């Protein structure tokens, strides 16, 4: 049992190191040697978990949705809003998440790795939250679930990218807040607008409500 | 004079070849030899115009705004809308523009080249159009020019990126149309909404109105 726990921890160390290396160097210029050095594990341990650079990239991509998790909210549109702010907050500090996002948006796609997976998975996730929102009467009848979900995922990808390119993501929370100010009036019924919270510090407040354990996780 | 014209044409051939090479391979993996081969010019001609790979990248980035030009429209918000559709349309066929956009959004930034220039230039351009729109009474009082301009530029960057990753940009016009359906109600005064054209075929129609010369340019 202790051995199994150690294996899980080693695997996690390697995935986090790989995320940081992919974030700094991009997929093409990253090497397994760089990951080995950063993770400080044996070559045998790394190859036991990950036989190739492709499998490291896949593992980093697979972490993206779990790292975007937020507590459920009774208002499903608020839960979508919270997801963007928490994701944005973690993106400023979590190297694994940064690496995962870089693999998703860089055109230099790892051959043999489906780097578009996170786009599709996020779109599915938002569609299912919008579906719940619709059933609860939160949405305007004009909202087409897939179109709106894809717009939110695509626009968020670009907003974080522009914030990274121009300001190292320091103004990301403000930009996400602007995005919602422009999007929400065409998504939710008017009566819901006032009650929704899309202020820039929303992500920090949601993370704080999760307690210190989660906050430490977000800083990893 | 003939010699000068030939030099201008040669320079253009090289820039277009460089754009195509950067689009296919990304900045890091592109070489001057690849550009030489594609442009089919002499080494001397290439180095006369571009002493380095960085200067090629800079020239490709500098072409991005000119390639987004659209005819002026009396309604300035319509002119912004037209810019996104025409840009999207050209992005499907113009390799130079594709390469320029890839250099802008890929995190693998060419060292010594300001690859964030287009983000800032587009933002400036949209701010000045929004300023005119405001003076003409087109905008809601809640619109903050810089915030809204940055959102439009960032969201467009992400929407085209997601469309490229998932569908090779085939559905880009539809996605731009969805973006405007969600954005316009929070940007323009209600009386303007009905008159604005943000249907998916807007870009094709604007380009057609420019005549065949421009259309050929767009296919280059």
TrEMBL record, chains A, B:
The entry's DNA-binding region: 31-50
Keyword NAD: no
Keywords: DNA-binding, Transcription, Transcription regulation
Gene3D superfamilies linked to this entry: Tetracycline Repressor, domain 2
Domain HTH tetR-type, first and last residues per copy: 8-68
Family matches, as InterPro entries: ArpA-like (IPR047923), CprB_TetR_C (IPR054126), DNA-bd_HTH_TetR-type_CS (IPR023772), Homeodomain-like_sf (IPR009057), HTH-type_TetR-like_transc_reg (IPR050109), HTH_TetR (IPR001647), Tet_transcr_reg_TetR-rel_C_sf (IPR036271)
Pfam families from the UniProt entry: TetR_C_45 (PF21935), TetR_N (PF00440)
Highest taxon in the source lineage: Bacteria
Listed GO MF terms: DNA-binding transcription factor activity; transcription cis-regulatory region binding
Coiled coil: none
Protein name: Gamma-butyrolactone binding protein
